[in-house]
User: Fold this.
Amino acid sequence: MTATMTKTPPPAAPKAPGGKRRLTLPMIMLIIAGALALVSVVRIITGQDQLTAEGQISAALGLAVPIGLAGLAGLWSERAGVVNIGLEGMMILGTFFGAWAGWQSSPWIGVLTGILGGMAGGLVHAFATVTFGVDHIVSGVAINILALGTTQYLAKLWFNSGEAAAKGGNPKQSPPVDSLPSITVPGLSDWLHDIEGHGWFFVSDIAGILGGLVTDLSVLTLLAAVLFVGSFFILWKTSFGLRLRSCGENPVAAESLGVNVYLYKYIAVIVSGGLAGLAGAFLAMVPTHIYLEGQTGGRGYIGLAAMIFGNWRVGGLATGAGLFGYSDALQLRNGGPTVHALLLLLVVLLAALGAWKLWKKAFVQGAIAVGVAALVLVWYVLTDEVPDEFVGSTPYVVTLLVLSLSAQRLRMPKADGMRYRKGQGK
Amino acid sequence: MELRGITKRFPGVVANHDIDITVRRGTVHALIGENGAGKSTLMKILYGMQKPDEGTITVDGEQVAFHNPGDAIARGIGMVHQHFMLADNLTVLENVVLGSEKLHGIGGRARAKIMEISDAYGLGVRPDALVEDLGVADRQRVEILKVLFRGARTLILDEPTAVLVPQEVDALFDNLRGLKAEGLTVIFISHKLGEVLSVADEITVIRRGTTVGSADPKHTTTKQLAELMVGSELPSPETRESTVTDEPMLVIEGLHLAEFDLEGIERIVLDRISFTIHKGEVLGIAGVEGNGQAELVEAIMGMLPPDAGDLSLDGADITHAPTRKRREDGIGYIPEDRHRHGLLLEAPLWENRILGHVTERPNSKGVLLDPAAARRDTERIVREYDVRTPGIEVTAASLSGGNQQKLIVGREMSHLPKLLIASHPTRGVDVGAQAQIWDQIREARREGLAVLLISADLDELIGLSDTLRVMYRGRLVADADPATITPEELGSAMTGAASGHLEHGENAGGEDR
Amino acid sequence: MKKIDKERVLLAIAAPLLAIAVSFLVTALVLLVTGKQPFDAFSIMFDYGFKSDSQVYILDKGTTYYIAGLAVAVGFRMNLFNIGVDGQYRMGAFFAAAVGGAVSLPNFLQIPLIIVVAMLVGGMWAGIAGLLKTKRGVSEVIATIMLNAIATNVIAYFLQPGRLGHLDKAQTQVSTTPLPSSGYLFNFDMGELNGEIYGFIVIAVLLGIAYWFVLGRTRFGFDLRAVGLSESAAEASGVSVKRMVLTSMLISGALAGLVGMPTLLNDAHKFGTEFPAGVGFVGISVALLGRNNPIGVALAALLWAFLERTSTQLDFEDFDKEIVGVMQGVIVLSVVIAYEVVRRYGLRRQQQKVGEELAAQAKNKQEVAA
Assistant:
């Protein structure tokens, strides 16, 4: 991400009047329904029932949460104008400190410590970027390096001896942590499971999805949902949020109105660190129950991609996280054949995109999309499954695809990534 | 309000020293001085964005010290900045309430208050519009409203008319008179002497960082003010003899560019523009910012590919030539925003001399750079164009605006351009440098250079141009004779109220130039 | 004028020295807190690190790290963050090893072939990120990181018996077909006990010189630096920014491809599961510490190799070798902060000096006129 200086641009000539086409609720529902129908069709064609199975959705949700929380962390930070590449490092701190406190006492203390660990990382990032004006990405990369080194050292120190080792710890992982409670809505869950089993078009898919949402739901997932809604409310409906966002849009203007820009940036980045720490703690406690070196697996960056996909808004971010979580879960649970079915889905989407571009007379783009769709179709037909090793890269490929297809209509906070110094008003 | 003995130093320069000003309540008080005289720094001190090193500020008889804008706002002082401090992606309402949410909340109550102020002073502001969609004059009114929203009794306006057409200036001054009628005090910084005389009750002159006198507008002429301001007469951009030949240098035919914004609505930026500039001719284009001038310049430079149209330079077709080739072929460029397009701020002067002409002598020989030759030539430019700098190894950021611009002019002229594109060439430049740049343009024009001049300074345009056109909504809607036209008449064409060949009318009224 | 230069040099060294000092301090604190003796640790490091066999090791490892640092630095000069050096060098080394093992040409053809393949593959892998950035506006930071992960999977797929991999004699490790002896690059033999200095060090030095020359003395280098300093100004000056972004990603990737060459041509002669990993991130650290300057990066690379070498000895002496990882992390973080502090101070000083000199000039003129 290159940071370029912008000044207040000259205003545009008055535009011809036209309504703003924001995504309205009916439109969103229509898109969701359409997507669901499409997936349902693919499921029936390929016979891959796993695509919308309750277990799959449950797992998808579980994997979407850390990505979503990481994305939310990125959102808080970038809305205040600070790019936070160090999310990965803060997540690592979260996994480590979460497991470290968690195995010694209760998992809830672990969650709290994980958040604090992430906040510490956030504090360092804020210190470097806000007070010293270090380039945001450089600082983030430095924090990732430091976080990795520190946790490796501390893991060797704390998990490799004494009681910890006795309980299964070693330099690469911690002893296990107790589970956090999870919720299942009894009657509803079973009933939905039944419907899903029938394999009907569309209805069973919905049953599968809903079933995944009410079965084995971890409390942390609920917490994450609350945080999402809360973030939206705080950032867009309160004066605190307005001031924070103004720091990311035009910090000079905010300062001229008496907003303490440094303070808001610090708060935003520390909150960002805390959220990333929570994401890490989640990883250490819900899908697994230990700290494992390399556990985060790039999810901090995927979270950032979800944030970009969501156009720096909470709703879009949640959608993106869901998407990435879904693909992550797919490859973790079933591997080859299910990912193979995803290929067919990709063919349909690319073909549709190509057709739309051609209709809009963007011939080159349309031809490329259709061409790639054809190639993927050939690949699909010629193979039965995607080899295991490639399956592992599904979330990364999906991230790249999503980013390349959606990068155009985006609007990031105007002063994102810019170094800000007090008194910068010309 | 009184300021006594205000002094402010920055590393390497004394911005203000011993400033003494008295402003009476309920008046419009003008502060004039040329670019670089220290007016903006003084206003920042008054608004709490800077702290004075020495001196006192007294408001309503009480001595005050401001540590941040919040303190000034609490004292009823509000500032309307020259470069608007508005967040494009937020609405008018959000921009207005920012920082003062406790006053009226951030919802319905605030909206009602905004409408109340807007109606009371005739500002015509819509709270839920996105600032990005507003034009310049509207944005200024939002800035004024911001200040009134916070209960300001004293308004400071920093160069408010710099971006307005004459008609909008009149509207603004009506607003100011309205404010005065309600008992508010207005302090207003400008370097446009004619305007100041028409609206101010009192005038204070600042020169080289200190107050040199005050004047009563009823008994002063612009000439006297100019003398106070710069110690001599203001340079005039007027040109005498015509040097226009009939050999065409730049021929533009049917240049057209349309853009689709985020909602897919088509906006025509350049509307089938055609014109010709001859050797030795200065073609001036007047227009409110945002009507396509910047895009026109970028299209000619090759930075923005048009949808249709032909361009030819000195007989050769350059419609598809890349920017570098156009520069090599002889287009010189003085950009509107020198910090973004003209200089590498953190690079030394001699590397900046190379910028834009890296493939030409003396900067390089073949594929390799020739730093020694570039350095020597930079020293020559510094001498010939009077660039005030201790050396050529300092970074461009350390130079003042005027000197930076002189360096750019020197650099471009040194490659003997056939066509010079000068976009707001003396914006933010002190009077001395301004005169020098005008001289350079006049001299080059005598040697057959063709110039495309874009400026918001109507005096500069009228004075320097041989041919005058007006650009509005991407089209050249009017032309005028610089020898007789007045800024007001140009102004009406610039806002779309007039078009065609502009004739100088009998009712133009006397003008101090 | 000379005065400013000397000051600038001092300022330039001050930051990394400060960073290293801070890092030693922090490490000492951490060691104390965990009940170990910092002085013991440091003296072990210095003793061991300067032994002659250590020196050979440091030069060897340093060669690899230096090239990685240069690859990252090329990107940094353009304000591009090529975090993907890690994936690019592994892809380059892997496919170069596979190709090298598959053919057997005379020495002067075999080695260049291997090198060229490595550069092409590395460049291509970086080029994907470059294309995504220029054509679709995808952040190169995220794209290259994703490509790193994908590279791991691609290599895992191919590095299997039956595809491009072979089991070794002990049936325990998989690697590509070992290079024929014509693919061995020369070494400098430093004696039985000390080991050999990689011959590739010569090429590394040449690369450093080329880096300095191209960036500082050619038109292309000027354009590249201009884009890094101000994209908008470079665009106005005639540079096609998109083309430059793509080109520098390709160059950065090609250099990254070379990172694995010292190990491949001078040491392991094949690409196996134990091929060094994570060198990309060392490259980032080293480029940051060396401030993208060819000599600075070299010194930083040697420092990193030194730290790594001494860490193994620390392990023997009952210190945790991971403490060196902490040290490295602290160095990187403190050096970026220190550079920023120094830069701001330097700018302020320059503005001050300019102001003073101009004032002095003005006074001189007045006195002359008087």
